[in-house]
Amino acid sequence: MSTWKILLLAGDGIGPEIMAEARKILDWMNAEGIASFEMEEGLVGGAAYDVHKVAISEDDMRRALSADAVLFGAVGGPQWDDVPYDARPEAGLLRLRKDLELFANLRPAICYPALADASSLKRELVEGLDILIVRELTGGVYFGQPKEIVTLQNGEKRAVDSQLYFEHEVDRVARVAFDLARTRRNLVHSSDKKNVMVTGVLWDEVVRRVHAQDYADVELQHILADNCAMQLVRQPKQFDVIVTDNLFGDILSDVAAMLTGSLGMLPSASLGAADESGRRRAMYEPVHGSAPDIAGQGKANPIAMIASLGMMLRYSFDMGDWADRVDAAIADVLAQGVATADIATEGARIISTSEMGDMILEALKKQAT
Ligand code: NAD
User: Fold this and answer.
1) What is the CATH T-level fold of the domain 1-114+265-369, as seen in this structure?
2) What is the homologous superfamily of the domain 130-259 according to CATH?
3) Which of 226, 293, 318, 321 is catalytic?
4) Tens digit of pLDDT for each residue in 283-336?
């Protein structure tokens, strides 16, 4: 059995509470000999600032770089609003994404049957929904230069952001999307705005080339990003994998997210390039933030964190069968009519963060027998 090195970065706010629930599962898998995880804990965000005056220490960065996967909670909170800009809690997260070169952000949107009524769409549109958005994470308009506000001679200000993409950036994220589609329903929608943007023209050209060269067995469809947003709320189940750039991915993944009901349900994975052995740098984290409004009260929903752990098993440790079991355990618990406050529908019994974690672990144990 391989031994996997995991760096746990719980962070701030509800981060430590939800990480504790994920840890119960990892500890149990270790104790049962299902896997061999070597876990280390580090500080990130405000928690790191309080000790080291930076959002992540060099030592923890080194550990992140040498880990097989990083499991991340959440960062931020009002008590760090006035720290220097470079040391603000989010800087830790951005540094990790940058230094680990995590260019592909995977955000699944899965609708559990028990929560179909919590969605803003009708039950029949979302029940059984299982889509995956692959967002390019390190290029595009959020990083392109020039990026500035200049004051012109007449005193008027002009702002510019630059959307730019290199072929290799599109090529590598397209490959991630096609590879993932092969493990799912074998369908990729590539989304851009090639009707009005040259970056979209290049995006589409590269995706088609990669498809023709190496992935002709996968069905590829093109969809303009505005139409994609519309189709996501009209008929979301038509999609399997959607691959798109940083900006459109930011927006489309939030639309897809809300189809499932609550922020507390949404996991994510960010992957880097594969080395010769096929191993990728990777970080797994819930989509939500540190929820300072409910921190320390036992109200946080740990499901996004636990589902992120599931993604880690699937994508970093080749334990897809155990990832399926984690997902089934979550569905099983929700079907028992319990919920944390954020996902409670009528008649549900509201339980705490640790009760939810315990019940998911119990359900997982049953899955294992
Ligand atoms: P948030 O996601 O923390 O919270 C938004 C709302 O959703 C709050 O009402 C919160 O209580 C609720 N919520 C979020 N996660 C929940 C969960 N697991 N269970 C139950 N309810 C949950 O976003 P925000 O309030 O805009 O930001 C709070 C802090 O988090 C800020 O400092 C922000 O910068 C930071 N943030 C961090 C990340 C990250 O670490 N990846 C992401 C977004 C925001």
Assistant:
1) Isopropylmalate Dehydrogenase (3.40.718)
2) Isopropylmalate Dehydrogenase (3.40.718.10)
3) 226
4) 999 999 999 999 999 999 999 999 999 999 999 999 999 999 999 999 999 999
What average pLDDT does the segment 80-105 reach? 94
What residues contact residue 236 under an 8 Å CB cut-off, 6+ apart?
Answer: 109, 121, 125, 126, 129, 131, 256, 259
| Active-site residue flag, 12 | no
Known catalytic membership, residue 122: no
In the structure, which protein residues have their CB atom closer than 6 angstroms to any atom of ligand 1?
A: 14, 74-77, 90, 93, 263-264, 285, 288-294, 300-301, 304, 340, 342
Strand order in the sheet with 280-286: 36-42, 3-11, 69-74, 280-286, 267-274, 104-110, 130-136, 241-244, 187-192, 219-224
Handedness of CA 222, 170, 218, 259 (dihedral sign): negative
* Within this chain, domains 1-114+265-369 and 130-259 share the same CATH topology: yes
Domain ranges of the chain: 1-114+265-369, 130-259
* Single-letter code of the amino acid located at 218: V
Global confidence as pTM: 0.92
Catalytic residue (choose from 204, 254, 324, 358): 254
* Segment 207-263, tens digit of pLDDT: 999 999 999 999 999 999 999 999 999 999 999 999 999 999 999 998 888 888 778
250 assigned to active site: yes
Residue with CA nearest ligand 1 atom 12: 291
